[in-house]
Amino acid sequence: MSVFLGIPFGLFLSSQSERELEDYGKETYGIIDKAWLLVRKSRSDVWSVRAKYNVGNKTFYTSTKENPEKTLFEGDTITIIYSEKTPQMSVIMELKKE
Hints:
Layout: H1 3-24, E1 25-38, E2 46-55, E3 58-61, E4 65-66, E5 77-83, E6 90-92
Antiparallel strand pairs: 1-2, 1-5, 2-3, 2-4, 5-6
């Protein structure tokens, strides 16, 4: 896939995810289960986190999220908005930029 096709496709997926969370979003609490300094070769290192949360009797994990302000640490309780339709689609509200 060319870079020129990949960027619009990524933006499309991002807007689709946002729309699904708006339409099917449910709130729950989660816990930061991993927090670390992500070392990158060509850009500045950045504090990153991953959270786990439960929907019904299943555990889900967020993708790695950047937290450059370094406000979240392992064991912190956070608010998760997940899609009722696709529970693995989620956002950590404490990191959402308005």
